[in-house]
Amino acid sequence: MFFSEQDIYLTFLNSRPQIQRFLNQRLHCQETAADLVQDIYLRLMLLKPPPRSETEVRAWLFTVASNLSIDYVRRQKRRGELLDRYLDRPHEADDSAAPERLIQARDQLGIVQSALAELPDQCAEILFLSRVEGLSHARIAEQLGISCSWVEKQLARALLHCRKALDRPEH
């Protein structure tokens, strides 16, 4: 006998305070924890196969909470790394960088930005999710409702497009 949709939602509502505490302990941010609890609620309709007991529902809820918190921490870490790398941070300033290298780097950044703007929306989104958010191909495919092979093809297309833009003779 499977749990009904109503039973699943009731289990979520009863477990919500515990999930919230669990996420607060992991993330040390009540607002982020609350956002992730809402994400879990939205994912309840994805629960397949239907669970057979309250224990299965609770296990799924906490597994999703754990995965979402891990993904959040990874995204934050990746964003921090990108900011440290690309923004002028005083503690990481490279005084030895020649002005010519800085100009060349800015030119290349402009070329890549233009190339990215030329990509179809889904192709650009796949590149963003892979390189900026740090998501796996399988996770991107799941999130966008497409196949892993399509993710790989679009990612290769985006990278090749950027590489060709940088290799054009007029640049």
Q: Which band does the percent of strand residues land in?
A: under 5%
Q: Quickly count the helices.
A: 7
H and E string: HHHHHHH
> What's the domain count?
2
> Residue-averaged pLDDT, rounded?
84
CATH class assignment of the largest domain: Mainly Alpha
Spans of at least 5 consecutive residues with low confidence: none
Q: What best-fitting shape do the alpha-carbon axes yield?
A: elongated
Q: Under the CATH scheme, which architecture of the largest domain would be assigned?
A: Orthogonal Bundle
Number of strands: 0
Supply the helix-strand structural class. mainly alpha
Largest sheet report: none
Distance between the termini: 65 Å
Family: Belongs to the sigma-70 factor family. ECF subfamily.
Protein name: RNA polymerase subunit sigma-24
Domain RNA polymerase sigma factor 70 region 4 type: 111-162
GO molecular function: DNA binding; sigma factor activity
Q: What report would you give on this structure?
A:
The chain has seven helices and no strands. By secondary structure, the chain is mainly alpha-helical. The chain has two domains: 5-82, Orthogonal Bundle (Rna Polymerase Sigma Factor, Chain: A), CATH 1.10.1740; 97-167, Orthogonal Bundle (Arc Repressor Mutant, subunit A). Helix 4 (99-118) crosses helix 7 (148-167) and helix 6 (137-144) packs across helix 7.
Topology:
Blueprint: H1 5-27, H2 30-43, H3 54-86, H4 99-118, H5 121-132, H6 137-144, H7 148-167
Helix pairs in contact: 1-2, 1-3, 2-3, 4-7, 5-7, 6-7
